[in-house]
Records
---
Amino acid sequence: MAGSSSDHLVGSLTPFFSPRRVAVVGASREKGSIGARVLDCLRSGGFGGLILPVNPRADSIDGLRAFSSLSAIPDSIDLAVITVPAHLSLSIIDECAAKGVPAVIMIAAGFAETGERGARIEQELRTKIQQQGIRLIGPNCFGLMNLDPTVRLNATYTPVLPPFGSVSIASDSGGVGAMVVMAARRVNLGISTYVSLGNHVDVNVNDLLEYWEQDSNTQVILLYLETIPDPHRFRRLAERIGRHKPIIALKAGRTTAGQAAAGSHTAALATNDRAVDALFTHCGVIRASTLEEWLALAVAFSNRRRPAGRRAGILTNSGGAGVLCADSCEKEGLFVPPLPPSVSATLASFLSPLAALNNPVDVIGLATEDQHAAATETLLRSDALDALIIAHLSINVADNDQAAAGIIRGIRAARLAGSRKPVFLCWMAEGDRDRHFSVDGEAIPTYHTPDIPALVIGQLLSYEAWREQSLDDVGLQSARKLPDLNLPQAKAICAKALLDRGPGWLTTKEVQTLLAAVNAPLLGRLATDPEEAVRAAETIGYPVAVKLASHHILHKTELGAVCLNLTDAQAVRQALKTIKERLVQIGKADAMEGVLVQPMVSGGVELLIGATRDPHFGPVIAVGLGGIHVELLGDVQFGLAPLTNRDVSRMIRNLKGYPLLTGYRGRPAMDVRALEDVLLRMSCLVEAIPDIGELDLNPIIVLPEGQGCTVVDARVLVQAPSEH
């Protein structure tokens, strides 16, 4: 749990959320100005402490005594909300320091987001607050809310107050955050606190995570992120806090920005967004793809009821809506099981003869309130289901009241009978879309499209599975604990290559030695002339493969520099001759280091293991179907170093091609444990050696159980860490 440094951080943020005296610097009589709006919001929100307007040209504003400066205020100040323009902000910070103000919200814009001049002001602002020990939210932010009824702080410039609840929100965008605040009442989302981070000169999302960890009002954390400051700290915090409080993130920037342009497959695949996915997956953060999903997940997780399994019941008044829900359930990995005969018989006893009595259950459009109530209760009390989706279409707007009343009655009756199954409503009632459903204090998650209930159920189940794993550390192994890792030797190889030649790809001999140092040897023997190649082939045993050894040329097969199934010495000699002639034809004779002579390997599955170094997230590790398939299918999973055995197991099992490793269509099962071992070793290698910029084992052939893995081709790029 949190230690003394965390306690200090939490204490430094407390004045933002529980101030007694709030000064508004730039408070104004001019209606429509930011200063006037913030002042109005503090008053109309019901803040119970003192509101202290600061304006050098006013004695009073809207009946409140105004002060010419912060120093003119006789009492101490817990929080200052600064609404003046950027060019005046630095002098105001000096006043805050002189007055001993511990916390500042700087709403004003005109900083780094506006260009070079604003960036200089922002840097000076950062320096000042660090020197003075002032905590600051912003600048260029929307403000902060604490909706706790004992505080009721609205230090923003929107008068719209959401209902109080258990969800706390941090947003890098003031506009997106404001949208959630204003939509909360419509979607029935209860909010505890809201923070607009703006340019996060000081307070950032990691600080807020630590604060919300100890905040009893916060049970669910909602994040809109455009960047992740200090991903390593975020990873530690999110993994710890997420075990008890779900973290739901909408991360902007799902583009190929930051994609490496070097020659490895991994670098081409490992975009910044995939690194974000890997980070979130590791630490249990639930990632939303859209604003609608983000809000939907917040509503579902704040409900606190979790399905015990994947069996979903569907109750509808429209067959089509039921089919759409069933399709969504299958897409999300849920089951829509047939109902036991006893349940169908119970339904038949009170529903119309036209009703569909299996799963989905269609009560038909003319169902009465009593029929809706009885059907809802029956399905919620059935042991054959883990969750219930109710999909209602508006056949006649006048019928919505009785349908809604029946649904509420049915849920209440089932709860009184002991059922704790979660209910998810898909209320597709035009003209009545914003209806809220609550049963004895239980808010029922309500959505408007048939795909959302299944999606949130799937995410609830995934979160619970991650949470159970994260709470069970048995068998957790870091790559650092693996035997037979000669990291000093591996470091020396990379350092010498970098010193001798500068940044670039290691030679084949260097790659062989490097991989052998971590017990993942490259298959075969390096030969520099025909007779050495023949001796290698005879030692290995025919048939063999002969391929170009060159750190300058990546796609050897396309160049005609790979010769397979060679059965005698003459074929080996001819292979060298052919490869040399091909290099001469393309003007790259100097690129040849020799050839790699390898045994022909059959009966395995080709995969790729790779690593690249993201400038923000550090080493990103990849595993996927290898050879040509990696480019064609893109079946790749990513993780962030350091990996544990749990990480590598998840990555491998999440591959679409995973069945190929388990004995697909009568083929033998492959040595998955050996593959996991190599993944852990590569994670340890790139984590320990910052000089490694990229690494590709492609293909690595996974052999049948007990026979291990074979690295057939490998490339390693070394470069100074500053060049990553």
---
Amino acid sequence: MEKEIAVFQPFAKGKQIQKKKGVNCVIYTRVSTKEQSDNNQSLDIQRKVCEQFATKSGYPILGYFGGTYESAKTDERRQFNNMLNFIKKSREKISYIIVYSVDRFSRSGANAIYIAEKLRKEGISLFAVTQPTDASTPSGSLQQNIQFIFSEYDNQLRREKCMAGVKEKLMQGVWCCIPPVGYDIVKRDGKKEYVLNAKGKLVAKAFGWKAQGLTVIEIRNRLHAQGFKICHQRVCDILRNPFYCGLIAHSALNGELVEGIQERAVSRELFLQVNGILAQNKQGYRIQPENNDAPLKRFIKCENCGSYLRAYKAYKNQQYYYKCNTVGCNCNKRADVLHEKFRSMLGSFTVTLNADMKYLIARQMKATYLQLTNEKQNATASLEAQLKDIEKKLERLEERFIEEEIDSAMYTKYSDKYKGERTEIMAQIHKCEFGVSNLDKCIDKALAYAAKLTPLWEHSDYAGKQMLQNLVFPDGIYYNRKNEGCRTPKTNGVFSYIATLAGIIDNKKSGNIADENNTAALVVPTRIELVSKV
């Protein structure tokens, strides 16, 4: 008997595969700020303690990471990610990450727990020298997770205290961060002062130039000519910063403005005048979310990069264009040309129907629908029978509990089990629902749409065109600038099927046997047989 069962061993489930545990390790050290180098958490001390532990435990050290100032609030650290990539690509198995303490590894709480768990699944353990814990056991893993959470909590408390001090200074008019471009920090009589430097004086000129009507590009070029290298986007940021007119705006102030102690670059009247000009956006562009002259935006995509084409109106010829904003794509085409290509695509699904053809297609669509949904109907009937069986089991379970044949623990156990099965069956029944209450009406409506797709698109407003575009081509269309072609990865199956049936009927009338044989391949896979009018 045992020999017979042994043949089926490959089909067994749940076998625990023990991963071979190595002894190689890497060391990660970190401090958040330079000031921490002066206490017992300096980089040298961390590395020395970690090396001593690795040597004592007999763990070969394959790499050192960190060794710099990185905040652990998030896990987007360069040295931290370099370590993870090294572990992943290393030819030799690495089994341990050794750190001075858990908070040196991460202070991101839940995300740190997630990373540590992923590492454990790969056979890699995190070991904190000053907080020794065996994370391979459930209790040790819990202890380490608690340490991660407390590290995050401690980080939040420090930030709260720090931000309270920052806000207090800001309320006094003292800027606590790196000053904006154009300012130097000077200490006089033990107090900080923010004074304009050479770039600050050029910034003051930039405000004056803007008030005179110069564009941002022209201002940038003038600044470049005087040795102040800056991009035009940065020029706009400077012109909108109230710091230059003596005010302080900071997220810690909760939307308030405070009088600052810094030297003013411009008057407040000039600042408001310049920002009034910027608000008019004379040199910018206006965004029209709904534009009947560009209905394909948010729908047509660049085939090269996959991003949506945006629409704009050219100043010279006042014509609309579609353009890809991806740098280097150079996908740019006049809107009327792409509209004509789209009409051609839509026209291939627009059919001309007389009364006889409409009758034949409607009968065939109904027969096809019923045939394809027959399996779902059978599946639904089977699921409903299972649901009734579950309901009977629940009723019987309640009776046995009331009659004290079973205790509450057993009742709860099996009640939860049956209710879970009932929920799953009901979800499956919901998936099998057809969602068509009046099949004939739906078919008539689909045929009516198919007979006027192109004119309906042309005479609709922006919202109507967008709806029709997404109805016929659910995944949009792609435009290829090189071959001037348009394609679509998916078409609405109803309109494709109507166009196919209309083509088959036309071929039958014309006696084109070759076409009829070719179209048969479209019909056979779905077990559809053409019906004829009687």
---
Amino acid sequence: MTAAKQFEMLFPDLSQIPDAHRITPIHQTEYLIDGNIHQWTGEMEKMYSPVYVKTANGIDPMYLGSHPSMTEKESLLALDAAVRAYDNGRGKWAIMPVQERIAHVADFIGRMKAQRANVVKTLMWEIGKTLLDSEKEFDRTIEYMNDTIDALKDLDRKSSRFDIEQGIVAQIRRSPLGVALCMGPFNYPLNETFTTLIPALTMGNTVIFKPPKLGVLLFKYLLDAFKESFPPGVVNTIYGAGQKVVPPLMESGKIDVLAFIGSSRVAGILKKQHPRLHRLRGVLGLDAKNPAVVLPDADLDLAIKECLLGTLSFNGQRCTALKILFVHNSIADAFVEKFSNAVNALKCGMPWDAGVNITPLAEPSKPKYIAEILADAVAHGAKVVNENGGVSYHSLVQPAVVYPVTPSMRLYNEEQFCPIVPIVPFEHLDAPIEYIAQSNYGQQVSIFSANAEMVAHYVDALVNQVCRVNINSQCQRGPDVFPFAGRKDSAEGTLSVSDALRAFSIRTMVAAKGSEQNKMLLTDIVKSHKSSFLSTDFIL
């Protein structure tokens, strides 16, 4: 039986889908603008799952439902609502005491938890993420929001005092920036959307958020929670083609923060559409081509285990994935053989299958792209070294290990974002360092070695090229309290639980000469709670 035929057999007919994981079409006609959930009666965008299902008429992608295909009109209505709610910093949400804003966010978290089963199932079907990873994404998002609340409390505690320097009395706090446009990626549509949306909200900004093109229907279950938890206009949603609904927002000049996770090409286009670039703050998570460097003295079994997770978790569709492996010539043959065997041992199947590793790819165009980039590598002298590597059937593709990869191939520099693992043999120990220095990307790197002197050499050479050096472990984002950033074309701004709060705010100060009259005035304001900014209240 051919590999393609084996893949065909993995796709179920309707009767084979476990009852707990069956899904009925979701027709989302609702959208939230200015505190009201409206019903959309216009054109709808049909959504299909990467999971194909066998029927009497053949095999087709599972029909998931539809969502609004909005126009410039609705986009500008959402913008108007957000601008009104912010009201040049005088809106209810912007001036609300921190403790009250926290209460609203906590209320939202409680309402969101009630939708866990619906969100997880929809996430699994929409992007082909395993059931276990879909559950992890939901739970990690809840944890991130709770950690954000704790970080904001800590930040506010440190600000609940006056400083006196050179006869000047001052209170320094962080204040919001204005209207934020938040757009997340398809691979983490819930978590990475919320890692910008929630910090933006907690700092007092108003928000317009557009779900990604894949992973959009899951937000249907959260609209009521947004409506009930936040004042009108604080959270507004838009749906549809990005090239139709986003440009009007940027061209208006009224967006103060662009929070976007996607490609650097698209981010560049969006920023250029804004007429007031010095007003616009970018919080951007962009491309990455994270390398691993396996040195001669590396623990081979450990390196293979970490590189396997790093390259092929969620089919390699992660910005933090290891996307190219540099392996020293002295151990390259042994590494390639063991690694290829480990790749072939991965279980392919449907997202709900127990122990599954490789699932259907979310992007319909990806199998064709994989075939093209593999053909380019082979044409330039590489081989697909693992059995059936690159074989596909519809959306399911066997991971491909490609060796030896050279600079003449697209895989050498291009971010593949799919289950392909390029392996580059090298002799000179500084060759990977030069590759990273010349790369357009600078997010992370993984170094595998037991030699302290060599590890120290790589650390010192690379900490000014990338933002995280991982020693004997895969690249990753977490823990979320650690900074997540990138150099060059990989990011703009830093995200972590605490860094994100700073990214969506600015330090603002109220100051006065320390005369007795001014001291009495400030004391009166604070003791009488006349101001939400000037306050010494301590949040426990």
---
Amino acid sequence: MKFDRNTVLGFVILAALFFGYFYVTNKQQSDHRKKEAIKKAYTDSVANANRSLADTLAGRTDSLRNDSVTRIVKAGTFQDAVNGTEQTVSVQNELMKVTFSNKGGQVKKVELKNFKGQDSTLIKLAATDFDQLGYVINTANNQTSNTADLHFNQVDSAANADGTKTVWFTLKSSDSSAASSIVHKFTVRPNDYMLDFNVELTGADKLLTQGNMNLSWQYSAVQQESDITFEKQNTQVGYVKDGTFDYHTIAKRSSKQFSESVNWVGVRQRFFFTILVAKNNFSSGNMEWSIPPDSAKTIVRSVANMKVQVPVASSASVPFNIYYGPSDYHTLKKYDMKFEKLVNLGQNIYAFVRPINKFIIMPIFDFLQGLTTNMGIVIALLTLVIRLLTSPLIYKSYLSGAKMKALKPEIAKLKDKFGEDRQAMSMEQMKLFREAGVNPLGGCIPALLQIPIFFALFSFFNAEVALRGASFLWANDLSAFDDPIKFGFHIPLLGSHLSLFNITAVITSFLISFYSMSMTPDQSNPVMKYLPYIFPIFLLFFFNRLPSALTWYYTVSNTITLILQIIIQKYIIDHDKILAKIELNRKKPKTKSKWQERMEQMQEQQKKIKDMQQKNRR
């Protein structure tokens, strides 16, 4: 059979059309199958999700239903109080606004009118979902429930003739034969941060087992200050057991067991204090606390499980007090319950400065507060008064420095004579001081006596509530560091900011060091020579995160010190008289003190040892 060219070409075209048809058809079928598969996968996914959601919702519904059923069963004769509607009532006095809730018949929130938080709203205490106060009651045979979980049936309030305001919550049993009821009565007094909280129990012998009230107090101390790290460092748990006060810093331990009688337990943040008082004392209990991460904006969460012994009778009244307010020394002291002991006027290794704060610093500060409301000026005046009180010590220090300066030429001659022989130089220098009647430590001792004052102010400025939120110059809050210079990144030891008051304190410290070194003989010891200049640099890192009240005080104190030093050295101390007196002392017969004798003996022995070592080397 013969195929011409046209026939062959026709077959080729036909084959190409078939191949093309099959290719397109297969591709369309493949795409369709893929789409169907995707559609099916999506449908299956949605179906699975719906089934999972349905299962989850069903599970949650079952869980909630079971939980509700459990709570109803546990509520026993108080079943009507399980699923009630929350009602709140607010009562206020001149100092605070307290919001109460019928759920648990307890405090829901406290707002302090004279203090504002970082968001410029009123400070709120006990205002989180974690905060609650309740105790376990018997609701039926082998059933118990916590009052914090129950809605009290009745809410009443009244304004009393004596200016107090009372709110009370009533929880009644649904079983009339049981005749059990609970009343929580709160009283708010005028100009007072303390609440009266009385628990009145009808059928107390049935509600409590053997008269044991197992009370649970949960409290969350939320962040109130700008520096959360510093606030945590200054937060403590305190209590009075067997009439003795004690406390713990929250970072050093996390619990406390009480086997003795306890009058009160409390949590003190840096400037705010919340205290639960049992007027008839807790018989025993324990307190636990934890420190959440900084991101939680919470300083500490504490749980106090305390036991109160209640008379086993048909009715009983259990009295408590709750304090929500500032950790102000004067405010706390008026309650005469040792609350004020938790205010940090000197604790731990700084406890020795507490009397200085109580009997010197605080009275002066309170007096100056009556003259002006500007806390920066109050601190400046306080500094001036302190410098005046310590001026006799300062004068002795400067007088000793003037005597040392008078001996400077003779010390320079000794240095030229003995060269690098520091041992011989030190012995001759001590002999020169003794002949001239000069005490080389005369300038150091008065300075050391001022150290307790500095540590007292360090504690005082960290604890004084009046400084909180007080602005002065560029500092917005004298109780916190001033940070007009922000780096935007963290520098080790320094932080992410630079305090301007810190800079002024460092500069004035450096000027004092420079002037003092110019008044003293040249030091042969390089460490002693440069140490006064190293100290201000150390302050730059140490002071940068301290309250600006302290760095402002230090700036003023340094300025006053420098001015007094110049005035005393140039216009009060007569250097010619000092030289004449030194010459007169040289003519007097000398008696060595035991300390001088021991010092000279030690120097002689060291010199002999050194001479022997040099001979052996030869």
